[in-house]
Amino acid sequence: MSRQEALEQYNYALKLGQKYYKAAIIRGGYPYLPALDEILDESMVAGRVEMGLVNIPADQIVGVQSVGRRTALAGNFMPLLGTDSEFASKWITLCDAHLSDEGIRDPVKCCEYMGRFYVQEGNKRVSVLKSYGAPTIPGMVTRIIPEYSEDPAVQIYYEFMHFYRLAGLYQLNFTRSGSFAKLQAALGFEPEHVWTDEERRSFLAGYYHFKAAFDKLNVNKLSVTAADALLVWLQVFTFSDIKNQGPQELQKNLNTVWPDIEIMAQGQPISVSVCPQGQTRKLISKLFSVHPGRLNAAFIYGFDPAKSAWTRAHEHGREYLEKHMSDRVDTHVYYANGRNYTEAMEKAVSDGADIIFATTPLMVGACRRMAALHSGLRVMNCSLSLPYTGVRSYYSRIYECKFITGAIAGAMAEQNTIGFVANYPIYGVPAGINAFALGAKLTNPRAKIKLVWSCTKGDPLKELTDQGISVISNKEATNPENEHWAMEWGTYKLQPDGSMLPLAVPCWNWGPFYEKVMLCIMSGEYDNKAPGQAINYWWGMNSGVIDVQLSDSIPDGVRSLAGILKNGIISGAIDPFKCRIVDQSGQVRSEGDRDLSPKEIMFMDWLCDNVEGTIPAFDELLPSSQEMVRLLGVYRDKIPPETEEETP
Question: Model pTM?
């Protein structure tokens, strides 16, 4: 009886093989199995390692070691020869053994290269087992190690080899560097944790469940793997969520983060809004028909505005919104005490929030979860360039203001060296440093910028003053109404008696931004803009969100220069970065004949040649600063991941 079943299975497999062959020929593809000997040159090999017996994922067995009788099998390992052939007879005999109590006992022999397996011995065994949909096939494996190179695929493979020593898993295929370490951390394991058999079994059970849901949704065959998608999932949900959900519920929840998976497949394009468009208060009467009810805006604060200047700036923005749109908008404040960001946002949703403004980058994880779980909720996070479709980021081009204060500092400094205190090495900060340096060079071609950081050990101001530097740029102002702002913020000049003479300070004014966002919601523009795309609002001085406050103490000529620069930036006639720029290594970054793109400015990780100092490494940062840099650091993809237990 089993012989007849084996014959029927061969006919079934033969149809699959013929179908694959015909489809390959029609599309101009190769219909047979690839041979490793034709792919690999010995000059590409760094060494070989005997891996012993491995349960090989069947879908990763993709070819054969040598050409041999390549016409017997199609590229999917299904047979191509008729039932009267010697090949078919041997295939049916093997299948008969597989169906009997004896089974197919002997492991195949394979070479593994770059995570794919090529059969040396046992082609027919592989064919039989694949025809039955076997998830794994036992095999004696020889790993062929490629020579290390700058090829991203080779670099990812070297990361895999390290991961394999820890986890013993071949099932995971990532397309981006750093992913294996991120998975290890996301699962709560230490970087060098060696998995137990139980941890491996538990993970694979959940992973196969997740992969089934991914395969059902991936109808467009995105250029990402199930493992890539799993990392996206783990940024919003937990791995235990996978195991606790049925297939339909899992697929439904995976669908909520699917836009971010699509963004990953597209190379994470981000739509950058560099200026407000369209809406003014004159449109209010027209907007009523689009959004006739009142809007409920929730502001999530991580700190008390009375104690945090950053939060106070957003509170001023909320008060501005209440004052100017009290007839259309209700605002509510929620404090995330102890960093209970999700809890605060859930309370806002239960209170009927139409939009959530999360005022620090540290809230991005909670923002993503809320956007995934609450369809239709608008979520914005105050940070720069987030690649997530459900959460929009907003920030400002503060470098425009830094360019003006740099020009003022260059004009006011009696020495050629000017101090600059930077906060975090995150996106946008190097642009501010460089714009300040270029502004100083504009008014003093010999100006040098001494760069120090407030996020590292030591006293940055004391370091500058000990060197006799008298003109110093500190942080931008978050409350320019404070008459004592120069004591803490902005650019100032130290007087011989030790007092500070204020010069100028960049300042935030979030009110107009919040107002324009609410108007966009009312008009329908917010919900219609770039659907399925990550959006970053990155507005400058022409929006009114940022400005430079000038001190009464600066000379009239310098004040006039500042006004000219400000008006030029607002009108677009002046671009701080449209000039010849050379970095510290001597590389010419721009000849001055083009505008730098938003991406080039936001992601700057280099410093101008007149800057003395460096961007601090991650291990040089104070522990309190590391979390922010993990999220938005200019080198965040190279930072070793932290485990769940390490997360504050």
Answer: 0.78
